[in-house]
Design goal:
The protein is mainly alpha-helical and about 260 residues long. The protein is built from 13 helices and four strands. It has a two-stranded antiparallel ribbon with strand order 1-2. A two-stranded parallel ribbon has the order 3-4. The protein binds a DNA duplex (21 and 21 nucleotides) through α3 and α6.
Length: about 260
DNA sequence: AAAGTTCTCAACCGCGACGAG
DNA sequence: GCTCGTCGCGGTTGAGAACTT
């Protein structure tokens, strides 16, 4: 992988020495001007490569290692809200990069959300956990079942994903008692609206055991995400409703 | 122990947005 | 308005690790 293309910039994995050079250069001269950086620093890397390496690996306060349950929940819910807007999602996770979130989604969460129908035992090696997994992910999913794979947020799917973090039976029962349908409202797909919703969805306010429980505690409105694969409008409303007027973030007006 | 298979994630690529000249 | 350079984003790739047969 590590070769030069027609004498072009070096490619492949970064070495420790290269990391050191890049880090020192950025600490001295600051971020930005990546094309200039790649020339002046002596690194035989392209500007894009330098930028990516800094952003995803060398930048201070990068958090590495396992995603916590809270982070997982947040990613799932934010993805439900925004789709593949990785940078936006990562922006709500201190120390996590868009690339990391994207990889995590593709390798862990995306599979997990497809586990409901698949029912094949697999092992999460890093956590030493087992979970039901459709081994071939979305490929075989379509042939096994023509319907869209359900998203994480339905009560049934939720149960598969929160194993060990809460008493599912109790919460599910409570959930079913007071489920509220939220209608999709036309005309709320613009970015401003979405970003207000995201702004409202602050990682720091995320203290209760699971977002699901948080919803249960916040207001009299108890909600489930819709089964649709991507319903940003619906989820925006969910967030507003979930945070309600009693919550801290609810004191601000996010309405257009 | 070896070969084959699957998984993970760092890095690359292409594209669009944006600002400067 | 056009071109050029830079930046940031999301999708994809592939090497190496981990696991299975």
């Amino acid at each position: 992988m590590e070769q030069k293309k027609n004498g072009g910039p070096k490619r492949g994995l970064w070495k420790a020495e290269e990391d050191m050079i890049l880090k020192k250069y950025v600490e001295t001269h600051g971020e930005g001007n990546w094309a200039t950086l790649s020339k002046r620093s002596g690194l035989k890397r392209g500007g894009k490569s330098c930028r990516l390496r800094w952003k995803n690996y060398l930048r201070p306060n990068i958090k590495r290692g396992e995603m916590s349950n809270q982070e997982q929940d947040l990613i799932i819910r934010m993805h439900n809200l925004l789709g593949n807007r990785w940078s936006l999602i990562a922006g709500r996770l201190p120390g996590r990069t868009d690339n990391e979130v994207k990889n995590y989604w593709n390798t862990h969460l995306n599979k997990k959300t497809c586990t409901v129908l698949g029912k094949r035992k697999s092992i999460d090696h890093k956590n030493n956990n087992t979970f039901d997994q459709n081994r071939d992910g979305d490929k075989s999913m379509s042939s096994a079942d023509n319907s869209e794979p359900p998203l994480i947020s339905s009560p049934e799917t939720k149960a598969d994903n929160d194993q060990g973090s809460m008493d599912l039976d109790d919460d599910e029962k409570r959930m079913k008692q007071v489920t509220k349908e939220v209608d999709i409202v036309d005309g709320c797909t613009d970015n401003t609206w979405m970003e207000r919703a995201v702004h409202c969805f602050n990682y720091d306010d995320y203290e209760l055991e699971t977002p699901f429980m948080m919803m249960m505690n916040l207001s009299s409105s108890n909600l489930v995400f819709h089964e649709e694969p991507f319903t940003p409008c619906l989820d925006s409303f969910l967030l507003f409703d979930a945070f309600g007027t009693d919550s801290e973030v609810g004191n601000q007006s996010f309405l257009p």
